[in-house]
Amino acid sequence: MRYHLKFSFIIRGKLPATAKSLIDQWLTELQALLEKGIKKKDLPEISRVTKWSVVSRSEKEDELQFTMTSGGILPPHHALLRMRKFFSQKLGREFRLGISGIVIKSYKIDVDIPRRPMKEFSLPFVSSIKFSDTSATVTLQKNIPIDFIEKGAIDRLVKLVRNKVIEEMIRGKDEHHLVIWSSPKKEIRCTDNPTELMIKEGWIQRTGYRNQWIFGPQITALAEALKQIMIEHLYKPLSFKNMIFPKVVPWDIWKRSGHLSGIYQGGFEPYFVCTPKTADPEFWEEIADYYRITLEVEPEKIMEKLRPPIGGLSFAQCPPFWIYLQGKTIADDSFPIFVYDWSGPTYRYESGAAHGFERVDELHRIETLYIGFPEQIKTIAQKLRLRFRKILGEILDLEFQEAWVTPWWTSQEGVADTEEEQVTLQTFDRVGTIDFEVYMPYRGMRETSHWLETQNVSIIGQKYPKSFTVKSQSGKEVWSGCGGGSFERYISAFVAQKGTKVDAWPSKVLKYIDKLPEGPKFL
Ligand code: ATP
Ligand code: MG
Ligand code: ZN
Most buried among 30, 164, 242, 481, by the most CB within 10 A? Predict the structure, then answer.
């Protein structure tokens, strides 16, 4: 790392000629101050002023210009904030002069990177980035405001440059995916595409809108049976309570959940929500009149009457829950908090061509959420894992596997853990995610086809309690975790292996549903 900053302090007044030698002294004093608490071997790495001069700005103002460079420790944008305080005191005391502003003239940063990225990129607030095999030389735009520095944006910018290079490397490597457990093989009774089967049976019908479906009475009954199974085999024995989570999500929640960092970068593709500029009938009258005459809408015209989005529709389901605990201190004996929500749909803008029932834009998911002390979270995650194993394998009688999928963001530097130590993970005891993937016979052979992620269970650690400032009474660390599985995925997976004919279904499922209601006959 190498930092190279040019900036000036604007002085409210004129510096006397005697100031020069004093300033040299002050800089020596300042350097000693900056060196305090720094390890000896790190001293060459910290900021130092390499050049300075006084320039007259006008009859009434002077400018103190500095060039400051550093390696990776105590970089100039940090040193600068301390230097401002230091110089304010000195100039005030000595000459009764104040600093009226700071101007960033130029800032060039050599960021260490693990390799030259395949696809070069630019960034907001940056005028150019030049890449070599080991570093990215970032030149910031001129006149970066000082509050940009004060708010920590430079450090985030530097981190982002590194992370973008690392993310590209990981993305190129395929998802980090390791099968850690497999169910016994099951007899395959169906090799048809479940979406087509269910359409044929009249269970589901596509609407005119992308990847959206209507659930007929038959499949709705099956979804209700699945709920009963979940209650009896998971939520009741593990003491989970049902809640109703909001489904409109304002920006602040996605800031805190971290989703916004990945918006439309693969993994977070939300629907946006706009409200009207006003609900005044007069403001909307022309839209109503236009419709009454033409029987058409003009979405572009409506767009002019909307405010920019306030956020979007629930995407991951659990983030809006956190408002419930935000800013609270919770009694130790209230932990663990175990809840679930299946109160309504969540939304994803799934890209590409039209998908089957297993990949919808409007999905109905069972979200399981657990908050508590680290040991409580590890224990419940393992219990949930074993119970999902039972539901998928013994009750639904499906062939499936568990995969350990550690997203890159879980490890600090963005480098995934080594694979060797993850091979079995017999107890789920660390931050990360287990996916439950069901074999879909219609897609081809077990070895080569893509299995359907139907459920997952995660330990997320401190992330949510921290960013929503949730504390425990004793001050002990609070963790959370969650898991999701949609009715669309469970039913697609079930029908893919067992078909739509009730007679052929496993007896353990028939206990919850022995006959499907009929839908209308369409002529
Ligand atoms: P995939 O890689 O298959 O898109 P995902 O990693 O995006 O899945 P998660 O974000 O982990 O899925 O969501 C949790 C659960 O929500 C999934 O296990 C699945 O049951 C369900 N789910 C996610 N996306 C959809 C979708 N588009 N349609 C139906 N169910 C979905
Ligand atoms: Mg997805
Ligand atoms: Zn969640």
Answer: 481
Considering the chain, what is the average pLDDT of its residues? 94
pLDDT of residue 314: 98
Quick check: is 435 catalytic?
yes
Q: Is 359 a catalytic residue?
A: yes
Q: State in Å, rounded, how far the first CA of the chain is from the last one.
A: 72
Q: Is 47 in the pocket of ligand 1 (CB under 6 A)?
A: no
Say whether 367 is catalytic: yes
In terms of Cβ atoms closer than 10 Å to its own Cβ (0-12, 13-18, 19+), residue 400 is: buried
Ligand 1 in reach of 259 Cβ (< 6 A)? no
Distance between CA atoms of 523 and 180, rounded to whole angstroms? 50
Burial of 146 (0-12, 13-18, 19+ CB in 10 A): middle
Ligand approaching nearest to the C-alpha of 359: 1
Q: Which amino acid is at 298?
A: E
Q: Is pLDDT above 70 for 392? A: yes
The CATH code of domain 2-171 reads: 3.30.70.1920
Residue 415: band (very low, low, confident or very high) from pLDDT cuts 50, 70, 90: very low
48 is catalytic: no
Q: Compute how many other C-beta atoms are within 10 angstroms of the C-beta atom of residue 439.
A: 23
Report how far residue 493's alpha carbon sits from residue 487's, in angstroms, rounded to the nearest whole number: 10
For ligand 1, is residue 485 a contact (CB within 6 Å)? yes
Provide the residue ranges of all domains of the chain, joining segments of one domain with +: 2-171, 176-274+310-510, 277-308
Q: What pLDDT score was predicted for residue 504?
A: 93
Q: Which residue's CA is the closest to the ligand 1 atom numbered 26?
A: 359
Report the C-alpha gap between 90 and 84 in whole angstroms: 10
The Cα 358–Cα 488 span in angstroms is: 5
Report residue 117 as tokens. Answer: 């990225």
Given a contact cutoff of 8 angstroms between Cβ atoms, the answer to whether 197 and 500 are in contact is: yes
Buried b / exposed e along 171-197 (16+ C-beta atoms within 10 A)? eeeeebeeebbebeebeeebeebbbeb
Q: Name the DSSP letter for residue 24.
A: H
Is 455 a pocket residue for ligand 1 (Cβ < 6 Å)?
yes
Q: Is the pTM of this model over 0.85?
A: yes
